Structure formats: C-alpha cells, structure tokens
Amino acid sequence: MKAVLTALILVLAPVEALAIQRYNSKSMSCAEIKGMLRAEGAAILRWRGRSGNQLYGRFVAHGGFCESGTRAETSYVPSADRKSCPVYECKYWSPDDDFIFRRRGGWN
User: Fold this and answer.
1) For 44-55, how does the pLDDT look when each residue is reduced to its tens digit (9 = 90+)?
2) Which residue, 28, 29, 33, 83, is most buried by CB atoms nearer than 10 A?
3) How far is residue 83 CA from its own chain's centroid?
4) Rounded to 5 degrees, what are φ and ψ at 47?
5) Beta bridge partners of 86
6) What residues does each domain of the chain span?
7) Phi then psi for 85, rounded to 5 degrees?
C-alpha cells in the first residue's frame, strides 16, 4: 500500500511548468524581437495602442509552434526602432481559403 501511495504522490507532485514569456515590444528593437522568437519559439508581446489600450498577442518563430487548425501568418508589432516589425502569429484558417480557382459547372 505504501508503494502505491508513494507512486501516486510522485505522479501528482507539482512539476515546473514551461511558462510562455511576456515582453513589451516597444522596449525591444525589431532584431531583438526576432532573435528572442528564434531562441524561445513563442512569446506574448504586448504594447500600448494609440487609444492607450493594452494590446497583446502570441507570436511564434515559425508554423511549427502553431496548434492544429491554425497556421503562421505575417503580422506586425511596434518596436523601439521601427513603427512595425514583421513577425509570425498563429491564425485560424480553412482549407477553402487556399482554393484559388473555383470553377463553375463542376469539374468536366
């Protein structure tokens, strides 16, 4: 019985979670933002909008950090040295969005 309890305690023991880091994008240069995303894979970037509201988003190094049903698309965040820094953000998509040619009357 002691062995079962010991095993249960070890399984349920708190494990250090890998928390996603948060950064203020306006305090970093565009190169620093891109380097940080390459090193960490994903991060929360936040900044103040024109109206003073706190804006934020989850940005990634590449599409491998996106969950199922999403893909990495170019987005822009403000940085210390540029008005907008191009980064990747996971966005929901449908395979129908990529269907360029739609034929009328079916596939003859």
Assistant:
1) 999 999 899 999
2) 33
3) 20
4) -160, 165
5) 76
6) 18-95
7) -115, 125
